[in-house]
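Sequence and fold:
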Amino acid sequence: MNTSSTSEPSQLIPAKSKFYLTFFLCLFLGVFGVHRFYTGKIKSGVVQLLTCGGLGIWCFIDMVMILLGKFKDKNGVAMPNISPKLTWAIFVVCVIIGIASTGGEKESTSGGSGSGVKSSKPSSERRLAGIYQCATPMWTLQLKSDGSYLMEALDTGDRFKGTWSVDGTDGTLDSTTAASMSFTVQSDGAIVIDKYGYTFVRTQ
């Protein structure tokens, strides 16, 4: 009887350690099948590795089985959940953190710059903003990111200003001092004023 009582703690410690390691391997590296490699399930571990944990579904099922104490090793022996309250709490917290971080990334992507101020201009217009120059005749065109524009003749000093907008490759210059003009964005990024055929090449 003394022999059996002294050997019981030595058997309990490895089982406890094995459960926690399997749990954390599945929690953080489950999509790579690491927990299955650890428990001796090499073939299914390779399949999980090649399929990213069965697109995450198989890995999730394994995690639930581990938490329920029904996940079996290569010998078919189930590993009981040593501390259900603790492991379930850790799992729920990790899921919440993962969902929150995913939502934060989506908001950051749709919100624009890191300053948290959403841009009112579409991304195509923000990319088009800059300074353009026409060689013949000598004009400059500045498309500002706030939606305003300034077109100026370098030889005469004539100036036109107002607002601009673009939809795909078709845009409009709405002037406060003259008639509106339409323009086309070419594949190389140059802007052509449709009415006059002036070609503006971006310089800045």
